[in-house]
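Entry 14. Structure prediction run on the chain below.
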Amino acid sequence: MTDALSTDPTGTAAPSYVDWGFAKTAGRRLVQAGPSVSPAEAREAVEQIRLLAAEAVEPVAATSRMHAPGAAPAPVVIDRPTWISVNADSMAALMDPVFAAVMAAKEHPPSATAAAIGGKVTGAEAGALLAFLSGKVLGQYDLAPAGTPQLLLVAPNMVQIGRDLQVDETDFRRWVCMHEETHRVQFTAVPWLREHLIDSARSLAKDLVPDPESLQDRVGQILSRLPEAFSGEGGGLADLVTTPQVRERVAELTAVMSLLEGHADVVMDEVGPQVIPTVAEIRRKFTARRKGTSALDKLLRRLLGLDAKMRQYRDGAVFVRAVVDQVGWDGLNAVWTSPQTLPQAREIADPAAWVARVYG
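Output returned:
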């Protein structure tokens, strides 16, 4: 997509909020360079990460009692610009139907020229966000709403953070691969989960995306309530422009994300020192690193809701460990039975309530 016009299923050109092609270009221009490595070191790192990802399959399956089907795509080792491009495509596939619905509901749609200009502006914003995030993400299971889902492992970030932590680099890369392999298992061993998340995200986005008429009012809300974004609570700027009903739906989706991240965190640690000898040191240093970022980084994380993402790891891990203590790993796996057995928002903080609801 090279401009702010997308094509709907009828073949009609429709204006889009975001020029995703421009977002890719902007993101690639703004992305920070990766760690300093020679071409040989880069090749060695990529090959090792690919090997460690393959070796993570059995320990994760044994620990989680879950198995990815044989047809599941293998992980892909990528760089930061590729991560930006893949995520721009996935964001477009997820959000363009939402934007099209918003535009269709507008009494007087913007002209093609206005849409193109607006799409460039929002594309630049999206590109800047992707550039920032591309230096933070170690791995990701890309849901690819319009394509083939796959596990992405971001090699330069694994190299850089392993160096920054001053830990055994092989153990660190293996540890990360355990976490990301768990995500691959979650989405391939549970066939309904991917579509459930995509549908939930799109439905919620329709309420979160302002229509053109209310955009100015939304901006006013942000400016008047901006100090709240710097408080210790909430999930970032999105909290400032949503109704209580929408926040409740956000909480329910956040509960599912907390389960996914917490489950992966517990599995990566439970694999244990027999597979990752320095796992305790890595966990300690990695947790400390999350707290020790710069003031600017903390501000950006707060505004973007990334602090809430960190709480997902913590709260989800507490939930998973508590449930495993009560009913074991096989008992926990009842959570993957259907959307109805996923934890509700209140149950993430009260695992016994989930056990009582599911097991009676």
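The first helix runs from residue 20 to 30.
Filed with the rest of this week's runs.
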